Hints:
Structural class: alpha/beta
Number of helices: 6
Shape: globular
Oligomer: single chain
CATH class of the largest domain: Mainly Alpha
Radius of gyration: 17 Å
CATH superfamily of the largest domain: Winged helix-like DNA-binding domain superfamily/Winged helix DNA-binding domain
CATH topology of the largest domain: Arc Repressor Mutant, subunit A
Number of strands: 6
Strand order of the largest sheet: 3-2-1-4
Amino acid sequence: MRHxxxxxxxxxxxxxLGELVMSSDGSALxxxxxxxxxxxxxxxxxxxxxxxxxxxxxxxxxxxxxxxxGRAPSFTPKIxxxxxxxxxxxxxxxxxxxxxxxxxxxxxxxxxxxxxxxPRMSAQAVGGAVGANPILLIVPCHRVIGARGNxxxxxxxxxxxxxxxxxxxxxxxNLFVPKEKSLPKx
Length: 186
């Protein structure tokens, strides 16, 4: 079947995290996220993707099957990153984080600062770009942690981030969930 540049296709995948939805332009994976979150985004955008079985979805499902068995997949499905140049660069850096390892927002910020020849880059800006990652798991935003082991920021929920890091056998001894800031008393 011939696809146009504006076609969007989806397929669902039942995972230990909950139902995931894969999206594609017909040749590359353009999105992977929790179905509950993606449905709200698609509805708000007025998008009406078609559910269809595509080769890229079969490859992505094979990648996910391997990953959820606790093994590092030996291949990466063809992906197409979206967002600003900065967001795409952060995603490219995340793609280099090995299975079972973590890096901090600050380390990514320092790498981008070096690449750009500037004195420093904001870890918070990196956090925003990590949060905009359209392709969960394959672009492993769950492997990005805060300073000193702080398990902060994961759109799919901190519990899922912990679940994924444990699946990858990350040493959790020095990682922690920040205590919620107490609200001022009235």
